[in-house]
Amino acid sequence: MFSSEVQNINRISPLEAGNYSQSRTLHNNEMLNTIRRSASFLKRGENSAKLIYEEQDHFRKWIQENVSKKCCTHFVESESTAKAMGPVCECGYPRSCHSEEALQAGRLQNEKWSNTKHLQQLPTDAFGDIAFEGQGQKSGKYVRVSNNTAPVTLYQLMTKYWGLNPPRLLISVTGGAKNFHLKPDLKFMFRRGLIKVAQSTGAWIITGGSFAGVMKYVGEAVRHCNMTSNYKEKQIVAIGIASWGIVHNRDSLVDVQGKFPATYYIDEANQGKLSCLDHNHTHFILVDDGTHGHYGVEISLRTQLEKYISKQRMGTEDAGLEIPIVCVALEGGPGTLNTIHSAMGNGTPCVIVEGSGRVADVLAGAADLPMAQITISFIQKQLRTFFADCYSMFSERDIILWTKKIQDIIRMRELLTVFRANTSGNDDLDVAILQALLKASSSSGHQWQENLDHQLQLAVAWNRLDIAKSHIFTDDKQWKSSHLHQATFAALVGNKPGFVELFLENGVNLSEFLSPRMLVRLYNNIPHYTPLYKKLRKVVDGEKQPQISDKLEKKRNVLLHHISVVLQELLGEFMEPLYKQPNISFRKSFNMTSINRQPDELYEGTLEDPERDLFIWAILLKRKNLASIFWVQGMDSIAASLVACKILKKISSDENDTDLYEEMEELAQEYEDQAVGLFTECYRKHAKRAQKLLVRVSSTWGNTTCLRLALEADSKRFMAHGGVQDLLTKIWWGELSVDTHTWQVLLCLILWPVIYSKLITFRQDELRKKARLTKAELNVKVESPRSRPQSLFLNEQDVKPLSCWQQFRAFFTAPVVVFYWNVLAYFGFLWLFSYVLLIDFQIQPSGREYFLYAWLSTLVCEELRQFLYDPGSFGFRKKALLYINSTWNQMDVAAILIFAVGLICRLFPATFYHGRIILALDFIIYCLRLMHIFTVSKTLGPKIIMLEMMIKDIFFFLFLLAVTIVAYGVANHAILIHNEKRLNWIFQGVVYKPYLMLFGDIPNDISYSGFDLSQCSVNGTDPYQPKCVEHNSMDEPIFPEWLTIILLCLYLLFTNILLLNLLIAMFNYTFQLIQENTDKIWKFQRYSLIEEYYTRPPAPPPFIIFSHLFVLIECATCRKSKQKHKKFKKQLDEKEEAEILTWEAIIKENYLVKQKQSQSQSLNEQVMCTLEKVEMIAEVLDVNRESNKFDAVEKNINHLKAQMLQSMRALNWIMNALMNKDFGPRDSAPALVISDGRNREEEAAGEERDLKPLYHIKARSLIYPDSNIERFPVPDEMVPWQVKFAEYKPPSYTAKAPDGNWPTSKPHLKESSQDSGLDDNSDPIDVSFLNPVGRTGLTGRGSLLCFGPNFAMDPIITRFKRNSDNSVAMKGSKNVLEFLVVQYPGEDWALPAGVLNPGETFPKNLKLILNTKMLSTLQNLLKEAFKVYIGYVDDPRNTDNAWIETQVLNFHLNQDNPLTNALTSRGGSGASREIKLPLLQDGSMKEVRAKWQVVEQGVPVCMLYKDYLQTVAEIHTAHF
In this structure, which of 50, 814, 824, 1317 has its CB flanked by the most CB atoms within 10 Å? Predict the structure, then answer.
């Protein structure tokens, strides 16, 4: 039921990466903190208790349905247990703890108690929160579970209901369960190392959970961490897994409904043989097997749980790896040795802390010795030393067993790491733990590069940059870019910028790394809580036509064109799409044959700019540090900063969370500052190039410009920069000199011949003057004209004077002249409009009025031109939006429409007067439109902006004012006047009069003194007089005067004092806001005016009609109009583009250096550096304080070693001298070995030879496979039959034969040992069937077919790998070989090998995948097969009397052999495809898989048969 649920949790889909987190309960403190930070928490505060109760109720139901305990159902009194407390059952519990049914069953049935028969599972009655009395605020979670609880249920409990984040490392701490003394320095290093590794990797620490021994030391480390850490992510998770039956005061934890919390008291004084729980652990799993007082009950479940957790994946399914596990051992006894032996047998690396005592020190002492020196006598000495108080309790068999286990442990040196506190230098325990995992991964059956990849992935998952730098990226290791791609992907997804920088420094090529498929993977692994996730999901779900890859899975993934849609939404449509839509024709031709295509195949080519794509990805996810890395790596950095500013501002505007909004705005401001800073540096170095950067068309960023990006990003600081304004000023003045005065321009407009009088200076004249001065200076400095470099002069074309026509054209096409020309024309239009309205507005339009209409038509044509003209190539939709969003354009359109309505009304006599009224109102709009002209003024421009802002403010004020006016007006009018039915007078009484009161016009009718019947109409029949107020028949007012006066006072108080002062305050705030940024705002607004008049035709209305006609002719003749927008948008050629981008990159480097220097000199940075140094010194002092007492001893030992080395050399010289004088034979002279470290290579080679087993290893495994039979331990030295082993008493085991019968004959006992080659002192053994290698610790046949040798075959069927063109694949200068491997249900990939039954030629496993015809073909090749190996096989099924002997045969298939492609056909790429064959096993149908595997060292299956495959590769001269 829950296995599929957990698979869904751990195999989470990319864009659903957080759905599981949402289901966590309110027990999760992280979720509570998130809720409290949200705006809606205050609204739900009153319901929080109810929510917590509901979550507890849900948790309670889940526990009762899925978690159970064990209870004894049959009371059988124990005879061996003391009865001081009364009768005790065999389960360990007294009679009082049994139910009546159990007592009754015990009396009625007289049978032996069995834990399988007399225990019953019931829903657990102990779970909830645990609080330790007298220990402050410490609390944790606990649960009582049955010992056969599924690990998947416990993992779901911990991650879903206890709210623990899945670990990135599992640390299983084992050791002494009783209190033992740990040296102060070792205790300090253990505590510090455990805290550091747990915090840095997010590890779970699993211990026994009791308040004693090693568990107590772990608890102290957890307490120290929690006391010194302020952040939630730094809290350590310590899980105690203990036996329920040994927990003291456990009754306080029992409650059927759970306890939230349960108060637990630690009582060591009265615990007796039981144990108290450690108050520093955070979670407890109490394992119940139905017994009381039995230790070790939890071991089996703990092992299963650790194994299950280690199979889960950390990170995303796309970028994660299995959770690593490590065992840390301190002190300990036999149980600890068993745990270490079992853990390492399962491939778990172990760290032994030397100096902690007992087992840890025994193993540490043997760790560096050759295997030949680890003998029974050596172990006896070690036990006598470290177990002096209990050595007498060790039997001979115990010592032999310890020797065997220690030999097995030392043989797995790659899994064993010894932490030596006094000789480890600066390495801490955390480094030793991580080193152990890295060392284990390097020997996990992968080739060198794959080992490094796995190690690197572990370092990334743990976020330990120091480990990666010191132990992985060393000088002796060479990395290719492709080797780091997966690790780079994991670092990006995990937001680890330090690793990304490290990978880039070590050769990652972003162009190779970031393919379209990789980019899609990144976007499909974004967290669910980000705004980007919601936007992408909206785009993907809203797409009408599914994409090709969507047909393969239910969940539709994000593709590149989806990202492009989101980017256009954030950046605007002024940019071209960064990622194109998939090929439509390809999508239409989709069929099932293209089902294997990847998503990136929908897009042609590769990514143009990977740095840009990764920068955008980081910005969208708000990952500042990663974005900074790619900003530094990329080109076109000013544009990149402006794009980031635009994206962040757009996302923040859509965000409702105030904190997130402020964070986004702050980050956007940083990128705006970055753009300004870099452009400032560029402008200082070279102003002209810097301005070229502003108008350069960037193909990287959708063919837009920096200037347009700054405008769209509302970057006022950037637009107000001196360099930008200098460029705008040059554009504004055109070919005129920027020093020209306004009066000179106006004079030349009126008297255009003055242009030629040199009153106006052109920029060309300035260039000629500058060239002349330069030439004169050179003439002074250089004597010979021929020696002057021509490159110092300006080009002749640049200094050529303008002709009269060029001067005329340059003057009248300058934007500033066009502006003033239009201003004068506009004043003329307003004068003509006002003249017609005031003087010449007749029934029959006059000539001046017709001229006004013609003039207006040219304005309409100009508005149409502005609406349709698209010099920036934005597209019609974007251009239309830009036009409509302008307030002045909206005013223009409104004025034209109103004028058209007035003109229509004016043409008809019936509405002639109404038309004039409409036109008069329209005149107001045209006059207001005049304010746009003054925005060019630095003085008036900001004031107009203030006015616009105040108009927006007044709209909010008018809403409050309207509510107040209507409230007072209706109430006052209803009190004074009865049933007024005239709407105009109702409006005056309800709205108009209260409005006039704001300005001091107080009406007389609100008091008796102002009552006058002559000024009103009694019945309301006079249309020109208001209706009289309420009065009696005597014409005296009767309305409540006191009430109307009070209402008036309150109304005036609220409006004149409160509302008007509020309005003044709003205006003052707006004024101050604009006043502080007057210069920036004006410079920002100036751009739109300059752009408008730069693109405007030079002739003003009404003469502008000729320009419009010329444009129409160009469009009609399909002529390409001259590019008028080149000053704002300039397309550079490739060479110039590369030069300017390179120059910008150089300037960026200088800018970054200056930024780093300024940051290092800042006060905050200096304080932080000082703090780090102080902490480092304090840490060193702590270590030195603990280890100073060992320094003198270490120095003395080193001195003694040096003295001993000198003495040995002297003795060696003396012995040689005496032997040369014939004082004694050389053979009897003792050997003196002098080792001074110069023969390390020889020692390393010797160590490698030492690790090679001399005898069988697997055949001596302590537990016989597929049984519970335990072998007699056989140490290495006792394996040969020739060695006397008096204690050797192996058990006998013979399984049933395949036919279900026992063997009919048994081997005869030995009568003489002479024929066997054994000594007379050897043990009496069975010589009929004797294992040729030596003892195995078990007699009998075991599970083999017969006594004696059992013959097997290992067929290695090979062929050469082929390319798609059927040529042999090569690697280097050698052919690539493939061999046939199979995978049976529940097993790994292996050869189709097996034991041969009598009369069989091929093993059964091979027959499963080959039909009769194939077997006959292989039979024909049997004679030609090369015999790779024939002999004994070290197999765990071997016994003293039965063993396996195999023949390894190589069947090589040539290209013409029918078997070559019969099994698995090759695909189009030449790669073989995996096939699946049905197999009936245990009554159910399963699958056997077969495939051709490349012969290569890196593949795990190749490492199993390394020696065989290496020989086969040499035979065929193939790669290995």
Answer: 814
| Cα distance between residue 662 and residue 40, in whole Å | 18
CA torsion sign for 1413, 1414, 1416, 1420 is positive
Q: Tabulate helix, strand, coil % of the chain (nearest 5).
A: 55, 10, 35
Beta strands at 237-243 and 283-288: parallel, antiparallel or unpaired = parallel
Spatial contact of 329 and 340, defined as CB atoms under 8 Å apart: yes
- Give me the percent of the chain exceeding a pLDDT of 90: 17
Q: Is the pLDDT of residue 855 over 80?
A: yes
Per DSSP, 1499 falls in state S
Distance separating alpha carbons of residues 55 and 161, to the nearest angstrom: 9
pLDDT class of 19 with cuts at 50, 70, 90: very low
Model pLDDT, residue 1462 = 60
Give the whole-angstrom CA distance, residue 204 versus residue 225: 14
C-alpha to C-alpha distance for 359 and 337, rounded to whole angstroms: 7
pLDDT surpassing 90 at residue 142: yes
Q: Evaluate whether 634 touches 1141 at the Cβ level (below 8 Å).
A: no
Residues 6+ apart with CB under 8 A from 946: 1070, 1071, 1074, 1075
- pLDDT value of residue 1220: 65
Helix axes 815-838, 804-813, angle to 10 degrees: 60
Which tens digits make up the pLDDT trace of 1254-1289? 788 899 999 999 888 999 999 999 999 999 998 999
C-alpha torsion 1015→1018→1019→1025, nearest 10: 0
- Using left for φ > 0, alpha for ψ between -120 and 50, and beta otherwise, residue 213 falls in left
Integer Cα distance of 4 and 10 in angstroms? 10
- In degrees and rounded to multiples of 5, residue 897 shows phi and psi of -65, -45
Per-residue HEC secondary structure of 347-359 comes to CCCEEEECCCCHH
pLDDT, one tens digit per residue, over 1292-1345 is: 999 876 554 444 444 433 333 333 334 444 444 445 789 999 999 999 999 998
Structure tokens given for 668: 């956007």
Give every CB contact of residue 1213 below 8 A, 6+ residues apart in sequence.
none
Looking up tokens 């794009």 gives 643
Q: How far apart are CA 66 and CA 72, in angstroms?
A: 20
- Per-residue pLDDT of 1061-1116, as tens digits, reads 888 888 888 888 777 777 787 888 888 888 888 888 888 888 888 887 887 887 77
Give the residue from 1259, 1253, 1261 showing the smallest Cα distance to 1438.
Answer: 1259
Phi, psi values for residue 901, rounded to 5°:
-65, -45
For helices 184-201 and 213-228, give the axis angle rounded to 10 degrees: 60
Of 256, 262, 255, 202, nearest to 233 by C-alpha is 202
Task: Return d(Cα 1444, Cα 277) in angstroms, integer.
Answer: 51
Check if the beta carbon of residue 199 is closer than 8 Å to that of residue 236.
Answer: yes
Question: Angle at the Cα of 1060 (from 1055 to 1061), degrees rounded to 5?
Answer: 120
Rounded to whole angstroms, how far apart are CA atoms 1168 and 1164?
A: 6
- pLDDT surpassing 90 at residue 441: no
Please indicate whether residue 109 or residue 1490 has the higher confidence score (pLDDT). 1490
CA–CA dist 1382, 1408 (Å, integer): 10
Banded model confidence at residue 1480, pLDDT cuts 50, 70, 90: low
What is the DSSP annotation of 475-537?
TT----GGGGHHHHHHHHHTT-HHHHHHHHHTT--HHHH--HHHHHHHHTT--TTSHHHHHHH
Taken as a whole, the chain contains a residue count of 1520
Query: Which pLDDT belongs to residue 899?
Result: 92
Are residues 442 and 414 in contact, defined by beta-carbon separation less than 8 angstroms? yes
pLDDT of 1210 > 80? The answer is no
Other residues' Cβ atoms within 10 Å of the Cβ of residue 877: 9
Work out the angle at residue 1418's Cα, subtended by the Cα atoms of residues 1417 and 1423, and round it to the nearest 5 degrees.
110
For the chain, first and last CA: distance in Å?
46
